[in-house]
Structure formats: structure tokens, C-alpha cells
Amino acid sequence: VQTCALPISMREMQEQFDSHGFVRIHKGFLVNCSAVHLLHTVSITLENGTELPIGRAWAENAKQQIMRSFR
Length: 71
Description:
By secondary structure, this protein is an alpha+beta fold. It has helices at 10-17, 59-70, and strands at 22-26, 29-32, 36-39, 43-46, 51-53.
């Protein structure tokens, strides 16, 4: 997991990275769908073992996009 501070909003980042396989899962997290190892009800586990929460506001869309990437 890499953290960085940028002078743009998460919404702007989400729009820029959406077409590159990233999905917003929480108010503070964008993840690369190909890095998701497990999808849980309220969280995801990345390939490196990191577990991140899925926010209610983004849950439905995030889960759909992640499931599409598993195919």
C-alpha cells in the first residue's frame, strides 16, 4: 500500500484512474482491481495481505467492478 498527498481531490483522482482499472472503495482509498485477492462483505484483501475497508457509499459499485476484474 502506498500513501501520497496530492493537490487534487479523490473524485478527480477517481475520474483519472477509472479507465486504468482502479476503483474507489472508501472515501480515502482507490485500489487497482487487479491487486485484489479476496472480496469480503465489508472489506477487501490485497495480494500483499493488506485488508482495506469498503465504504457503504461505494460498496455496490466497487464490488461490481472488482467482480468483473476477477473474470
